[in-house]
């Protein structure tokens, strides 16, 4: 589905051609990433990594496409993006520990 051996997969074509994906996928993925930890379950801290791993794969795939890079840059100075970036850094630090 995603990039494999530097060859674009089927999902890339969907990301490039679907109007709804082009309009809503970037902000939807940012919100999804941020909201994973808000499940209210006691062991959510450890569960979130499983879902964020796949979210990171989608972000990596989206980064290849100029439309999504531009869209992501539009959110750089927003509180939501700051929250998202903070969570990415916390997750990265936790994984290195």
Q: What this model shows, in words?
A:
By secondary structure, this protein is an all-alpha fold. Helices cover 73% and strands 0% of the residues. The mean pLDDT is 83.
What's the short version?
The protein is built from five helices and no strands.
Main traits of this protein?
mainly alpha, 73% helix, globular, 97 residues, single chain
- The dominant shape is globular
Supply Rg. Answer: 14 Å
How many strand elements?
Answer: 0
Q: How far is the first residue's CA from the last residue's CA? A: 31 Å
SSE topology:
Layout: H1 10-17, H2 19-35, H3 44-63, H4 66-73, H5 79-96
């Amino acid at each position: 589905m995603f990039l494999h051996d530097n060859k674009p997969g089927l999902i890339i074509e969907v990301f490039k051609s679907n109007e709804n994906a082009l309009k809503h996928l970037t902000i939807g993925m940012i919100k999804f990433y941020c909201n994973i930890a808000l499940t209210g379950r006691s062991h959510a801290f450890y569960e979130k990594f499983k879902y964020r791993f796949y979210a990171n794969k989608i972000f990596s795939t989206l980064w290849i496409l100029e439309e999504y890079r531009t869209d992501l840059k539009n959110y750089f100075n927003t509180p939501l993006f700051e929250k998202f970036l903070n969570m990415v850094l916390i997750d990265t630090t936790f994984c290195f520990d």
